[in-house]
Amino acid sequence: MDNSSGVGVIDKTVALLSALAESPCSLAELVTATGLPRPTTHRLAVALEHHGLVARDADGRFVHGHVLASWTANADPWLGRAQLAVLRLRDQTGESAQVYRRAGDERLC
To answer: 8-108, what's its fold?
Structure first.
């Protein structure tokens, strides 16, 4: 976490959500990706799951939850329409699926 806001719990939560943006993660993978202690990672992941910001896939790995998807959809109508197709694709295949938007020379998930 090299981009500290000065509010530790927010920085840790953002690190966890950022790791999940890359791919679904087990608890051990989240610990490795974030560098956070296992109890902290577990506590934050379960709290985020309670609020719908994180969910678990069929294999028990953590993924972004429906609340994040709805927030994104509300912010951008195109993503809202695409989100339904992506969720169906994910559910039908059991694989991760993302939509990317071009931002200059980069892509944003």
So the answer is: Arc Repressor Mutant, subunit A (1.10.10)
d(CA 33, CA 3) in angstroms, rounded, equals 15
The token pair at 38 is 């296992």
> Tokens 């506590």 correspond to what residue?
43
Decide if 13 contacts 48 (C-beta within 8 A).
Answer: yes
CA distances from 46 to 14, 93, 96 (A): 14, 25, 20
Nearest alpha carbon to residue 64 among 21, 8, 3: 21
Q: What is the pLDDT along the chain (109 residues), one digit of tens a residue?
A: 568 899 999 999 999 999 999 899 999 999 999 999 999 999 999 999 999 999 999 999 999 998 887 776 667 777 767 878 888 898 899 998 887 777 677 776 6
Ramachandran bin of 99, using left for φ above 0, alpha for ψ from -120 to 50, beta for the remaining angles: beta
Q: Indicate the domain borders of the chain.
A: 8-108
